[in-house]
Automatic annotation (TrEMBL):
GO BP annotations listed: L-histidine biosynthetic process
Cofactor: Mg(2+)
CDD domains to which the protein is assigned, alphabetical: PBP2_HisGL1 (cd13591)
Name of the protein in question: ATP phosphoribosyltransferase
Subcellular location, record wording: Cytoplasm
Principal location listed in the UniProt entry: cytoplasm
Regulation: Feedback inhibited by histidine.
Pathway as given in its UniProt record: Amino-acid biosynthesis; L-histidine biosynthesis; L-histidine from 5-phospho-alpha-D-ribose 1-diphosphate: step 1/9
């Protein structure tokens, strides 16, 4: 049985379970359950603190896990990123009270509050800086006004928490994080782990592409398919109406409105968009 670690709580927990459900795996129904066996797919899911997941995967006690890139880096465990799951996106950044620090080189010699000391220490080492790292569990934005630190390093998603604490970001993000699938080594080519990865890739494609279908005059086909080249190549079928063809191609969800406008301008008609619920490319 394949053994997989999933966040039991926090920002990544619900979207990770949803992604696995979308990929056809059974998930716990009670949020207090710590284990869920999916006999049909020979997979057992273990619900763990996201911060602990790299430890279990790095030691080889679990085969794969879903966690955040920032948490993997922070752990210092030699597990590797197998697949970017494209949810739970956030940046990890320096922040300080407005008007105090203007660039990240000024971090040296300061007191830095963070719940991610591993990420901060790696940055300090790589940039040959020395500073005092104050390790906190959360609500790090309070550390400066309460006097325990001069600067913080924390997860920033919308920036609301920083603004409310009177802090501004300093310099470029230390890292860009998202939910990732981790393993002990590179992805296997076959077996249940390879199948899980392929299924998750299918969900990712289904989320980022839609199927576009339209009718167009045959003499405009080259121009139209230049807008919708598809993945391999678009499907072109004859229409009963002489001189017209029907085209079908996958397009990126983010581009679909622009492409539909351009196709319409070109003379395409009956332009239809359909969601893809899953796929194997
Ligand atoms: N708005 C956010 N707040 C916190 N973490 C976020 C956010 N958006 C994405 N993440 C990611 O979620 C992971 C942290 O999850 P974790 O469960 O440890 O903290 P949490 O969601 O803040 O929950 P809690 O604070 O209750 O422990 C990190 O990988 C982080 O980058
Ligand atoms: O940029 P934002 O959208 O405001 O989100 C980022 C904030 O959210 C998280 O805090 P959380 O509420 O999880 O509390 P915690 O600090 O106790 O973990 C994170 O640690 C930041 O403080
Ligand atoms: Mg938190």
């Amino acid at each position: 049985m394949l053994r997989i670690a999933i966040p039991n709580k926090g920002t990544l927990s619900a979207p990770a379970a949803q992604m696995l459900r979308d990929a056809g795996y059974r998930q716990r129904t009670d949020p207090k359950d710590l284990v869920c066996r999916d006999e049909a797919n020979s997979v057992e899911f273990f619900y763990l603190r996201p911060r602990d997941i790299a430890t279990y995967v790095g030691s080889g006690d679990l085969d794969l896990g879903i966690t955040g890139r920032d948490l993997l880096v922070d752990s210092g465990v030699p597990a590797v990123e197998v697949l970017d799951l494209s949810f739970g996106g956030a940046t990890f950044r320096w922040a300080a009270p407005a008007g105090t620090l203007t660039s990240a080189d000024q971090i040296g010699g300061r007191r830095i509050a963070t719940a991610y000391p591993g990420v901060v220490e790696r940055y300090l080492e790589e940039n040959e800086l020395k500073a005092d790292v104050v390790r906190l569990d959360g609500a790090v934005e309070n550390a400066v006004r309460l006097g325990v630190a001069d600067v913080i390093a924390d997860v920033v998603e919308t920036g609301t928490t920083l603004r409310q604490a009177g802090l501004v970001t300093i310099g470029e993000p230390i890292l860009r994080s998202s939910a990732i699938l981790i393993g002990r080594g590179p992805a296997p080519e076959s077996g249940p782990a390879a199948q899980l990865i392929r299924r998750l890739q299918g969900v990712l494609v289904a989320r980022s592409f839609v199927m576009l279908a339209y009718d167009v005059r045959a003499d405009l086909l080259e121009n139209a398919t230049a807008l919708t080249p598809g993945i391999e190549s678009p499907t072109v079928s004859p229409l009963h109406r002489e001189g017209w063809v029907a085209v079908q191609a996958m397009v990126r969800r983010n581009d679909v409105h622009r492409i539909m406008d351009e196709l319409y301008e070109l003379g395409a008609r009956a332009i239809l968009v359909t969601d893809i619920s899953n796929c194997r490319l």
